[in-house]
Amino acid sequence: MNSTSSDAPDSPVPPEPTPVTDDNLAHRRKRRRNIALRIVIGLLGAIFAIWLILFITKGRFLKEPVESIASSLTERDVAVEGDFQLYFAPFRIKFLAEGLTVSNPKWATRPHLFTAKRIDTRIAPLALLFGNWRLYWLDLTEGAVDLEWNAKRTANTWTFDSKGDAKPLELPTIDRATLRDTSIRYRDPVLQLLADLDFATVVSSDAKIGEAVRFTGDGRLRETPFTLQGALLTPNATVQRGQNKLELQARAANNIIDISGTLPSLADIEGVPLATRARGGNAAELLGIIGVVIPRTRTYRLNATLVKQDRMYRFNALKGTFGASDIAGQFAVDMSGARVHVDATLATKTLDIIDVSPFIGYNPDVIAARGVQAAAAATGAAPARLLPNASLRAEGLRAFDADVRYTATRLRSDSIPISDISVVVDLDDGLLKLSPLRLTMARGKLASDIAIDWRRRPAVTRYDIRLAATPMAQLLDGFGVAEAGTNGTVKGRIQLTGTGDALHESLASSSGRIAFVIPRGTFSTRNVQLSELDFGTFVQKMFENKLKEPVQINCGLIAFTVRGGSAAADPILIDTRKNVIAGRGGFSFATEQMDLAFRADGKKFSLVSAQSPVGIGGYFSQPRLNVISPELLGRAGAGLGLAVLAAPPAALLAFVDVGDAKSAACGPVLQGATAAGQRTTKGKARDDVGNGKKATSGQKGEKKFLGIF
User: Helix, strand, or coil here: 507?
Assistant: First the structure.
């Protein structure tokens, strides 16, 4: 039977919600405030208790925990030998430690990063929470700091980072300080720099530490010892993180370097322009300190603005002198790579020729005092020689790279007028290129490409020197040759390859070709007639007082083939309106001897003509002109015999030139062809210009040093 019991219990009824009233909300907020207040009071009480305990005990009981925590965080051994205090006094953190030591990493050369007989300081706690160190007061006695980089410059001793990431050095803000017997040591194996600085006792109060903080020191940079001294001239600003004026003077390798500037802080020189002045007797000694090899210079003085960015050192607004020459521009030294790299743009208004001499191996001081020959002898060259035997250090030229752009407006010289010099220097791992090297010489343009491979032992040098058409009058004017009556030009090319670390060695072993072409033009009679040795014409013009009358040159070629340092005429051939001049012989770069002979054959009948070779012998430094050759003496003897047998007028027959010289075809001459390619105007091969294989003059009675003609 389905029925519902009347006595079944009723379902539970939920209580009605308490209505939200203003009184209820106020009660809840009050309860929360009370809880927060109890928490704050509890924290303040705990802090006060801690402060009180620390203040009463001076925190000495924290010595071992602090040593342990500091050692764990820094991964260094931190220890305090004597008294230790760490507490709030009253709101600043007081830290005192006697015999404090902080160890260095194992790779460092010194056991400790920091040691102090006694350090007593007050630290700003709020600044510390934001990662900044501000010391209201510091008293340091016999403090020593060791700052080092590792061998690869990837880590340093002052960066506490297990990953090994090196960070720049940052010093804390110090309001007042007392420093006694403080020293700093800095070591950088990559830069090969070691410096030790000792600071004079510094006492400050109320953020004032007197007029200057002075320091002295010494060290070594790339095996070169140096000393330095300096001062912080406005240390009162420095201790408050203001600007500080620095003055420093360093002495190294007979050079004096002065640096001054304004630093934002003691250790912050990154990007700060510093006025730099350097002076000394030889700039090569200065640059040699950082491993950059250049030829020696005379006394120099340089001013520049130095800006350091990491391992890049830029010298801007460079200006100064070396020897009797001026220099300006800018250059940068990058020490971040495996080799030092120099990048420079330099310019000179007036370049003294003596200051150029070191770049080919001469000592400029010797040249200035005693001349080129004495300077060559000073390099080990034999007597009477001019080419220097001095060599640059090949190993030094592989220690750095360089990109240099240099210009000079004028070369100060007593002979050849040279101006508008420009050269691009590229040095890459011992391969030195001077390309292009350009200059203006007597209104002619000279361009060259020179490459010296110092990676090969001995060095291999390739010369390619090109002379554009140059007026001979201006070219020879410096040698006392009259300009009037001469409008001829000369152009040429020198291509040689040699081995050796010195200029003399390189040329003495060289092979290649030298050729100078003379296109159509006129030349002063005074200059030409002695070469042609046409006595009849010369005497006739001398009595007619027409020495300035020009002689027409159709074409000319003075060329040599060089083998093993010996140059053989190949050919010497000059065609003029009246004569054909041919030359034989040659010279040696090894001995610097010359053995040349020039012979002029007339194209027309001449009653009085010697027709004998003019010999040029001797050395580059002491050339000898042999006008009265053995052949001429023989002909004079024959004339004397004829005069005895017949009559005095018959003696003239020995000097008669029948005028059978064959005119030269100017095409091969102007093309610089070898002797085998020379032709007469009728197209026949010439038989009076040799074959370019024997470098002798053919003069009798003289020792031939290049072969037998």
Answer: helix
Output 623-628 pairs: Cβ under 8 A, ≥24 positions apart.
Answer: 623/594, 626/699, 627/530, 627/533
Mean confidence (pLDDT) of the chain: 79
Q: What is the DSSP string of 532-593?
A: HT-HHHHHHHHHTT-TT-EEEEEEEEEEEEEETTEEEEEEEEEEESSEEEEEEEEEETTT-B
Q: Which of 235-249, 291-305, 561-575, 663-677 has the lowest mean pLDDT?
A: 235-249
d(CA 319, CA 166): 36
What is the DSSP pairing of strand 134-141 with strand 173-180?
Answer: parallel
- C-alpha 585/C-alpha 692 separation (Å) is 9
Q: Is the Cβ–Cβ distance between 349 and 556 less than 8 Å?
A: no
* Chain-centre distance for alpha carbon 264: 31
Cα Rg for the chain, rounded, in angstroms? 44
| 174 touches 184 (CB < 8 A) | no
Torsion of CA 62, 68, 73, 75, to 10 degrees: 150
Residue 652, by phi and psi: left (phi above 0), alpha (psi -120 to 50) or beta? alpha
For residue 158 the two structure tokens come to 């002052």
**Residue 530: what are its φ and ψ, rounded to 5°?**
-65, -30
Q: Is the pLDDT of residue 652 over 60?
A: no
Predicted pLDDT of residue 237: 46
Q: Where are the alpha helices (DSSP H) in 571-675?
A: 630-645, 666-670
Q: Residues 613, 598: contact at Cβ < 8 Å? A: yes
Tell me the C-alpha distance between 50 and 42, whole Å.
Answer: 12
193-199 and 173-180: which strand pairing? Answer: unpaired
Q: What angle do CA 562, 567, 572 make, to 5 degrees?
A: 110
Can you give the length of the chain in residues?
Answer: 709
Residues with Cβ within 8 Å of residue 225, at least 6 apart in sequence: 218, 219, 252
| Mean pLDDT score, 73-97 | 90
For residue 401, the number of C-alpha atoms closer than 13 Å in the C-beta half-sphere is 10
Distance between CA atoms of residues 571 and 669, nearest Å: 9
Q: Which long-range contacts (CB under 8 A, 24 or more apart) does 484-487 make?
A: 484/524, 484/548, 485/522, 485/523, 485/524, 485/525, 485/548, 485/549, 485/550, 486/521, 486/522, 486/523, 486/524, 486/527, 486/550, 487/521, 487/522, 487/550
CA 359 to CA 118: how far, in whole Å? 58
Q: Which residues contact 314 (CB under 8 A, 6 or more apart)?
A: 306, 307, 308, 330, 331, 332
Domain boundaries, the chain: 50-269
Joined together, the tokens standing for residue 424 give 């691009």
The Cα 77–Cα 72 span in angstroms is 8
